[in-house]
């Protein structure tokens, strides 16, 4: 039983019943080491209304097919794209579908070391009994290999190049040597089902160019932002409703307010007037989080659903951050573009423009 107070249990826990049902009905062939067939894994991710499987990722289903095929060939899968396009969510869902486990995850960053990728030691045991499989502390990559599971490597391009390079031989030879351990324990061979899903942000790419040798070991898939307004609106509605319920908010978000919010995000992405485009990334993920904050404000400050004025209050912190130019652009948008729109909710947004700071 899961702890209901967990803020965000992993996908295999959140959707345990869906996974169990899919597994039961799954008659299609499965690649060696996989928990589900490709067909069932795809249904888990894109949903299947008739079978009561929820849609979790919105986007091109052929992207999912290509990704799953890549993994079945045991090549690495690299998901690239703008921030907030659900790369991490997709990698979590794929890992949960393919391995039944999405928590073998390495979070890449400037301080990531090889120890955090492969293995380290329990120093108390190491000192008292020397190197042994008891004193070895396996990191996600080693566990994924030994157990035949998908390993997720988040933000791989932010890792130092030597850590990226340490993956090279591992991915081609499919073995990790542990020189300290004698005998057969000193070689950990990868089992069927082991593969790597990495994610990388197109914005951070310059920080640490990915090594060319590593690039060759991955198939790249680009995850694009949601193109269609209605689809994005539905996703923001579904996700924010769920988050608000979890936060103890007693009323669902208002549709008209969400419409204004999603449309505003799209405008500030430069979808309408390029001049409105902010330098901050106005991703769907951010739209969901603003919709959540708007609902919280309405409920906990006034006991009602969030209003367009709450949208303005929340936008400053999300959209403009600490960038004065973005704040000026946002102000201009609220003053000039918003009043041209018809509808009471747009007028309310316009009236609330003085709530922007500064
Ligand atoms: N196409 C989509 N399908 C489903 N959810 C989406 C989609 N696009 C954005 N989201 C929303 O964004 C959230 C996931 O963002 P996630 O952290 O996975 O993005 P990311 O691409 O990894 O971002 P970053 O580059 O900042 O790490 C989801 O929880 C969901 O609410
Ligand atoms: Mg991410």
UniProtKB/TrEMBL annotation:
Domain AAA+ ATPase: 73-228
SUPFAM superfamilies: P-loop containing nucleoside triphosphate hydrolases (SSF52540)
PANTHER family: MAGNESIUM-CHELATASE SUBUNIT CHLD (PTHR42759:SF1), MOXR FAMILY PROTEIN (PTHR42759)
Name of the protein in its database record: AAA+ ATPase domain-containing protein
